[in-house]
Design brief:
The structure is a homodimer.
Chain A lengths: L3 H8 L3 H8 L7 H13 L6 H8 L4 E6 L10 H16 L3 E4 L12 H8 L3 E5 L6 H8 L4 E4 L7 E5 L1 H14 L5 E5 L4 H17 L8 E3 L5 H13 L6 E3 L3 H13 L9 E3 L16 E3 L2 H17 L8 E4 L2 E3 L9
Parallel strand pairs in A: 1-2, 1-3, 3-4, 4-5, 5-11, 6-7, 6-8, 8-9
Antiparallel strand pairs in A: 10-12
Helix pairs in contact in A: 1-2, 1-3, 2-3, 5-12, 8-9, 10-11
Chain A binds a DNA duplex (30 and 30 nucleotides) through helix 2 and helix 4.
Chain lengths: ~325, ~325
DNA sequence: TAAAAGTGCGAAAACGTTTAAGAAGCAGCA
DNA sequence: TGCTGCTTCTTAAACGTTTTCGCACTTTTA
């Protein structure tokens, strides 16, 4: 590896001069600066990030904490899309992405925070984690700039998909199609779930739609089996719903299986709506009516926010940024009268 | 951050002694070693990776090149699964994962190789890239240990899903179900595609199955539209196939749409098989018959191989590791007589 | 008993940068 | 002439490690 020393030797100037020339410090003559830069290019010089980091305490490296108990993280459509967008945006701005080590089985392992300090991440983005984990809390409370996605901590920037508006819009859509008996199989407890559920109740109330208790059920996210079981229970009711909301698109397909096994048709006999807007849903029949979360925007805003927080710590607002999704109308919701 | 200097002060020994005690060098007395380690723990010491890297030229950081023209990389089920497994395995072995910066629009950007040297990756794994890219070639030919997934370069370790056996097994499965008119809509040209296609022809020949030219068609991977169009063409043939192979599961759903729009049923009127074994395929009706690639194994072997290459450069074989998949029998292939 | 070998530790240089402080040269000015 | 101030460059220290070498002491060997 060619270092600054090599360039300084080749140019007959000191190493300090080389450093300043390359970093555009003011006190270097134009001629020297050009000469140094030219030589650096010719010799194929690139800085050594470790040395730079050691000296400046800046790595231009972002940590991403991306971990779920069931390890579906990276294969989770929604989160993977967010991460993809986060990555692109960060890279455009000159930052690299490193995963915060999630291995919890190593002897002598570091905590998340320790790992972040060890690697010297300039900031870290938390996606798809258990936000109530003690180590996660320790991390967000540390002095490392932090952005969370889809979870709100005190005094931490959050980029949130607007679940409230999402459910609101979906419910309005379904209401407008004439549905009045609407069930919601919601995900397991989390802040996202709570928001969706609250929005569901509130919107229903606004619309004057009565939601019997037995219409509200629980299944894990992406749990086709759970959705299947809960769907069966809904169908067994004396007054079954005409439309069922699911935790997400994936689970929705589990529900549809239960429906079909009863010899019923979607949407003719019963309507369904998902959440997320996974890619495949646009290619299956019936096309799923769902709320497409704006993953591109979410990842982008998260990257921008964390970089802002790093580069302008004073003037960057600690705020909650809401990103709206969009009702993606398919044909899984029937018009009824 | 507490550094070795702090520990050395607290223990009344030199920094060198601290370093040796923590790194288990031989020439430190047991008592001192324990005292230092104890103190390090108490003070919450963790090493500084940048300083360590600067001195040792080892980062315990693996680069992952993960980039596709259409940016579907991270949202691509197959590759995301491989990456997930790669990540877990690497983390267990004490390595972190950083993405090789794929941003090609930045002014003054570094090439892949430059970026890898800049970050000091101990090794890099190439997944899901255009292997014919000049920069990719430059990278694999460099002195940085490299492992590719699903592509074979000269003198580079490769972890490959056994596409040849995969297609072989699938075709045998379909043959055993009685099919003799079998079409293959294969993916666009790549080494993987070539292997699959060759295996298709070879296995068909072995089985004595004649494959007319018009049964062999092309559609991009994960291109539902393309698969749709090509499926229509197949259905328009005088002697349409009784079974169609698709580039992958995703594309297969595009093909099934074409089939259904003709009022035909899968598998009663025509059978289909996919490739990959994406998760959702197990939850949709008909359950897709497909070849489930062993992504867990692929990622794991890749991580193990690259780490071996890094830690034991002399004795590690440059080899091509084949990972077998498994026919995942659904009910998208009918038994015919 | 003296030399050799072994043990436990420290001093100092080095990795490749950045940066504060200072020096040299020169112009302008009283 | 001597002072000031500016521009351009250098010196040297520092970041937190690792590692070579050497020193002092102890134990073994001849």
């Amino acid at each position: 590896m060619v270092s600054m020393k090599d360039i300084s030797a080749a140019c007959g100037v000191s190493v300090a001069t080389v450093s300043k020339a390359l970093n555009d410090h003011g006190d270097i003559g134009e001629a020297t600066k050009q000469r140094v830069r030219q030589m650096a290019k010719e010799m194929g010089y690139f800085p050594n990030s470790a040395a730079k980091a050691l000296k400046t305490n800046r790595t231009y490296n972002l940590g991403v904490l991306f971990e779920e108990e069931d390890h579906s993280g990276l294969t989770h459509d929604y989160f993977a899309s967010v991460l993809d967008s986060l990555k692109s945006t960060a890279e455009e701005k000159g930052y690299d992405i490193t995963f915060v080590n999630g291995c919890r089985t190593r002897p002598n392992r570091m905590s998340y925070l320790e790992h972040c300090k060890y690697r010297g991440f300039d900031g870290v983005v938390l996606v798809c984690v258990n936000f109530y984990d003690a180590e996660v809390m320790e991390l967000v409370r540390s002095d490392i700039p932090t952005v969370t996605i889809d979870h709100l901590f005190n005094n931490v920037c959050a980029i949130m998909s607007d679940n409230i508006k999402g459910i609101h819009d979906l419910l309005h859509y379904v209401y407008d199609k004439g549905h009045r008996r609407i069930a919601y199989i919601h995900g397991v407890d989390s802040s996202v779930t709570q928001k969706r559920l609250a929005s569901f109740y509130k919107t229903a109330a606004e619309l004057g739609v009565d939601i019997p208790d037995e219409y509200i059920r629980t299944a894990a996210y992406r749990d086709t089996k759970g959705a299947y079981v809960e769907t069966e229970k809904l169908l067994d009711l004396k007054k079954p719903p005409t439309c069922i909301f699911y935790p997400d698109d994936f689970a929705c397909y589990g529900g549809m299986n239960a429906i079909r096994e009863r010899g019923l048709q979607v949407p003719d006999d019963i309507s369904v709506v998902g959440f997320d807007g996974i890619r495949i849903a646009r290619h299956l029949e019936p096309k799923l009516t769902t709320l497409k979360q704006d993953t591109k925007q979410l990842g982008m805003r998260a990257a921008e926010k964390i970089i802002n927080l790093i580069e302008n710590p004073k003037i960057t607002l600690i705020e909650q940024i809401l990103v709206e999704g969009q009702v993606c109308a398919g044909n899984s919701v029937a018009e009824i009268s």
